[in-house]
Amino acid sequence: MTKLKAPVPAPVDQDGDLAALRGDCARMAPHWHAPDRIAPLPVSPSLIHGVKVPNKSARLLDAMSDYGD
Question: pLDDT tens across 30-47, in order?
Fold first, then answer.
């Protein structure tokens, strides 16, 4: 009986690169189905309530610069 040798698979690069990632995404794209966009219904103003923030948190947020100013 002859023992056949199976080919040794090439090592797999677990990190990959951007080209490999894009290729993987392109192969998977046909399997992904996005739902139709559903328009949100308007909310009654009586259901909208204010946001309550503790004073310490409000002062902290007020002291932060917006967008890295």
Answer: 888 877 888 888 988 888
